[in-house]
Amino acid sequence: LRIPLPPLGEQRRIAGILDAADGLRAKRRESIALLDTLTQSIFLDMFGETKHLEQAPLSDLAEVQGGLTVHSKRSKLPVRAPYLRVANVARGSIDLTEVKEIGVSDRELRILALKVHDLLLVEGHGNRMEVGRVARWTEPTGTYVHQNHLIRIRLQGSRVHPVFTEYYLNGSGGRAQVASVAKTTSGLNTISISQVRDLKVPIPPMVQQREFMERVAVLAHQKETALQSLKVLTALFASLQSRAFHGELQGN
Prior knowledge:
Blueprint: H1 8-47, E1 55-57, H2 58-61, E2 62-65, E3 79-84, E4 89-90, E5 93-94, E6 100-104, H3 106-112, E7 119-122, E8 124-125, E9 134-136, E10 145-146, E11 150-155, H4 162-170, H5 172-181, E12 183-185, E13 188-190, H6 193-198, E14 200-202, H7 206-244
Parallel strand pairs: 3-10
Antiparallel strand pairs: 1-14, 2-11, 3-6, 4-5, 7-9, 7-11, 8-13, 12-13
Helix pairs in contact: 1-7
């Protein structure tokens, strides 16, 4: 392999430029992590450990629905729909960078099409800490569906808000409940639909939930701005790397 070999002083100058750009990315990631921590702190400050609040099982508060089993026969179905997989659902966010399509029947599409504020819970994962992670669907109602390794929670009535429920299930209280019932088979950790229906959710006053939602919305806007900035910095770093190793950063 042949590599460009500028003088050592020039190598140090190029390394300094790349280090500075990478340092900006690291600081932006830190700010995003701090925003997530701040949201969790606000939740604890407003609701405490939630043990003193009225509790109700999800079966009383929501419609809990499994997803589509992926198999080869679906390729023959006439309707195609984008579907979410475990890889698309992180804890508290949904990544639509790579979305695959699947064949569905008209009935399946009617039943499984996602609606705004639907919660998606990861049913199975190799990492025990990731089972039960939840993200809220915020896109307009359309044709997106989900596979069977995700469980949809569609809240009914007005006792709990989806934003509050998402943060509770992703927090210490929800995670502890999932950990207590999750089963391990051949290295895969899973939670069943019936166990999800039995998960207890605290019910604080709705005015308090709305206040939390408003505070979360402000932080979410700040986080989105930070994420966009991180994308720009990542593109800048990639450009600098390319120029550096094509000899285009050499100079005075």
